[in-house]
Design a protein that fits this description.
alpha/beta, Rossmann fold
Length: 425
């Protein structure tokens, strides 16, 4: 880390010793997983820098913004609309839930058989190691899966200002009305937090900012479809992960810069992997920072990941918000329309997701799909069975993986992944 941020972390109430351990583990993992890759685009240097300063410079920036009156809102789900947050003069940050931490303490509050993502969010709080969580003026929870909605009842006692958003479970007229009502309630809560009312002007500007960020990621996603793939799945995942932390305008510029470079690489047939490397589409649970386990196993087993059907990936970013509205009311409708299309497995039935997986597999030229289910995640594990059956029936080889954040099963997973890749060849 470029500067000594210990004073800042102390002021935020972090447990410095535990935080040092986390940064040490993170730094080593990053070096071994990302920096050891060959043929990376030069533009990834930006993301290397961002990751090296993820608890330093970015936090300092956010705290400086706070000094000038801006607020920070933390979120665990892609259903929290960044457009509303920005328009109310706040910054939205994703809260890490991608590593085990303080598990003994976590398991005093949550059953052992809770999904790793939920346990991780508690671990970062109980272990006092997340500067984003500690600097947030409001944390937004959402009633998605049963695990999350019950866990927020307990999290409410641990974080200062938890706003729980109710979410529909069915894509119906009533479901949309609920989402609309909840987004209105969230808008009011954000305005109350910041003291800044959302206006047509600020909302339009915010929609454009978030759309630009998504459009940059769409561009990256479409360039990954070339063969040879000009960027590894790990690096593309990293860009999707940084999407949740970085300053939006700077992120957009950086990703657009990488896209220019990828276009040149495609023209020169310069790949992160050789041409005809087996191509995998990952589908399933979100991979939050620093959960790089599965792509690392896949890409060190002779395949390249060419897309993520995931909330840290295309499920989270795929649709833009219509920015043609002129009033707050019209633009709020457009926001509801956009987010109501997110096909999270908490919806029942959820046929759109299978359609999207098929569509992505074809567009990315994927040779096979790996379905990634986090242990104890009922929605995605349940859905993985009909997804696998349908894809296999259509001749798309599919491998279902169920795992957690530990490395104990890495050897066994690697064997299964290698056998799957062999089958694709
Ligand atoms: S919109 S996927 S970000 S809820 S992995 S906690 S579902 S038991 S994270 Fe998600 Fe929003 Fe849906 Fe996306 Fe529950 Fe499953 Fe755990 Fe999960």
């Amino acid at each position: 880390m470029g500067e000594d941020y210990r004073g800042m972390w102390r002021d935020l109430g972090l447990d410095l010793a535990a935080h040092d351990v986390l940064l040490g583990v993170l730094g080593n993992a990053y070096r071994d997983i990302f920096l050891s890759q060959k043929n990376r685009p030069e533009g990834m240097a930006y993301f290397d820098f961002v990751m090296s300063e993820v608890h330093g410079l970015r936090i300092r920036e956010l705290l400086d913004e706070k000094k000038s009156g801006r607020k920070i809102i933390g979120s665990y789900c892609v259903f929290v609309p960044e457009e509303i947050v920005l328009a109310a003069n706040a910054s939205l940050v994703g809260l890490c839930s991608g590593a085990d931490f303080a598990m003994e303490e976590v398991e005093r509050l949550l059953p052992r058989n809770t999904c790793p993502l939920i346990k991780s969010s508690f671990g970062f709080k109980l272990g006092r190691v997340c500067p984003y969580l500690e600097s947030a003026d409001m944390v937004v929870g959402e009633n998605t899966c049963d695990g999350k909605k019950k866990a927020y009842e307990t999290l409410g006692g641990l974080v200062g200002n938890l706003h729980v958003m109710d979410l529909p479970q069915v894509k119906s007229v009533q479901g949309r009305a609920l989402l609309k009502a909840e987004y209105e309630r969230f808008r009011a809560a954000a305005e109350k937090l910041t003291g800044v009312p959302v206006t047509a002007e600020t909302l339009k500007k915010a929609i454009k900012t978030v759309n630009a960020k998504r459009a940059a990621i769409h561009c990256l996603s479409s360039l990954r479809r070339a063969d040879p793939a000009p960027i590894s799945g790990l690096d593309a995942l990293l860009a999707n992960q940084v999407f949740f932390y970085d300053n939006p305008a700077r992120f957009t510029d950086s990703v657009n810069g990488i896209c220019d470079e990828l276009e040149r690489r495609i023209a020169e047939k310069k790949g992160a992997f050789p041409g005809k490397t087996p191509r995998i589409l990952l589908s399933g649970c979100p991979q939050a920072v620093p959960n790089w386990k599965l792509p690392f196993l896949v890409e060190t087993s002779g395949a390249v990941i060419v897309g993520e059907e995931s909330c840290v990936g295309e499920r989270g970013t795929r649709n833009l918000t219509d920015d043609s509205g002129e009033t707050v009311e019209e633009m709020m409708e457009a926001i509801v329309d956009r987010y109501f299309q997110v096909d999270c497995a908490i919806f029942t039935p959820n046929p759109d997701r299978l359609g999207h997986i098929r569509e992505m597999a074809a567009a990315c030229g994927a040779d096979g799909v790996i379905h990634y289910g986090l242990q104890f995640c009922q929605p995605y594990l349940m859905e993985s069975i009909p997804v696998e059956t349908a894809l296999e029936k259509e001749g798309i080889p599919t491998l279902r993986i169920e795992t957690d954040y530990g490395m104990e099963d890495a050897g066994q997973l690697k064997t299964r992944i290698q056998a799957f890749i062999e089958q694709l060849r």
